[in-house]
Specification:
The structure is a homodimer of 142-residue chains.
Chain A (H helix, E strand, L loop, with lengths): L3 H10 L6 H11 L6 E3 H11 L6 H13 L4 E3 L7 E3 L7 E4 L4 E4 L17 E14 L6
Parallel strand pairs in A: 4-6
Antiparallel strand pairs in A: 1-3, 2-3, 4-5
Chain A binds a DNA duplex (30 and 30 nucleotides) through helix 2 and helix 4.
Chain lengths: 142, 142
DNA sequence: TCAATAGTTTAGAATTATTATAATGTAGAT
DNA sequence: ATCTACATTATAATAATTCTAAACTATTGA
């Protein structure tokens, strides 16, 4: 709240015009204690229900992708046919709660450094991501 | 070729009726040297073009999911809005070639055992999957 | 062997996530 | 204040997947 000029500056820094919609989205995404994991749908809901901002769906998609391209957001690969995004753009791993479909960040210290022994000729490694799927202890897994 | 009775038996073993379509799909998927990674689209194409089998799209979906539920196939999480499947159902990791969108299996020996130091109360770990994204060495990454 | 039935296949409609389009609006430079 | 390039918007289009309901078939057991 009142950090808006920060967002305006930050947007400008990476070459994104600080439009009303983008600033509002920044507020929703980054005025938080913890990193935030969401789907486009989650975000649209938050914007309209909590913030009373009806930003067009196309704009939300455009803006999320603009943010991703500029390193403001990171896309996370969970199964299914839905994209998850993460406001924590540093290299880190995740837990995925299969009961609640919730993503949880891993600190670097939670998982030892991963050593890749295989090499693919002519290719370089862009990223190494670990996904740990968890579920209720008492529940049978499919 | 001629392994069909094997497939019929195997299907029966896990409680799937060995229909003509399912047996054909088994042939395409499992009469191979190496494990096979595919999308539904790939599979439909293979069936119709190489095998001259026009199995309805809905059946391919149903059958792939039936196979997955019974442990004949494993779903792999890559980004995007497409599901990838793997005929190698054992716990293993993957390389994903971002240039060709190809999946490559990792042997167990390619990646050291991963130690998860974090615990989520009341939850048990179902799987730990590593995805290593690679791309052409000379190509700038997005 | 044959009918009953429970599970399967199918074409097509419906749904869901996402992207494209083209008209209108707005930020930033002059 | 005006221009221009970039943004936003509603809506249409596309793509992947699931649903539906009718027709079909493998299995069971009389």
């Amino acid at each position: 709240m009142s950090k808006n000029c920060n967002f305006i500056e930050k947007l400008r820094e990476v070459g994104l015009r600080p439009t009303k919609q983008r600033v509002k989205m920044c507020e929703v995404l980054y005025n938080r204690e913890k990193t935030f994991h969401f789907t486009i749908n989650d975000l649209v809901k938050l914007l309209s229900e909590k913030m009373n901002e009806k930003i067009s769906l196309a704009t939300v998609y455009n803006t999320v992708h603009a943010f991703e391209k500029k390193g403001y957001l990171k896309e996370i690969s969970i199964d299914s046919h839905k994209s998850y995004f993460d406001t924590n753009t540093s290299a880190h791993h995740h837990f995925f709660d299969e009961d609640t479909h919730e993503l949880i960040d891993c600190d670097e210290s939670d998982i030892e450094k991963i050593n890749i022994r295989k090499n693919i000729t002519g290719k370089k490694i862009n990223s190494v991501e670990v996904l740990v799927r968890v579920a209720s202890d008492n529940q049978t897994h499919k």
